[in-house]
Design goal:
By secondary structure, the chain is an all-alpha fold. 71% of the residues lie in helices and 0% in strands. It is built from five helices and no strands. It is elongated. The relative contact order is 0.17.
Length: 109
Amino acid sequence: MILRVVSGIALIVGRVTALRSGPPIEIAALDVVTAGAGLLLFAGLWTPFAGALVAVLELWSAVSRPGDPWIYILLGAVGAALALLGPGAWSVDARLFGWKRIDLQDGQS
């Protein structure tokens, strides 16, 4: 839950801050979609889709934007990890669709 919430906040705040500088329409559209995906991650709604979208958008930002690409690479990796891990127990996805839990049995059975 903490990873999902912190990455969602980082995406939202980073992109809203970037939108305040008045970027060109192409970059602004990318920022709006990324902030929307961050909002989905923050709430835990459609987490696999939102995480995959964040991973793709942040990879695109790392390649296309000037400056240091490492923050985009980090947020993209976190988005990919969240897409694979899922939303967790405290999320909208868990309330809507149920929380899936995998219990591993030891080899002594």
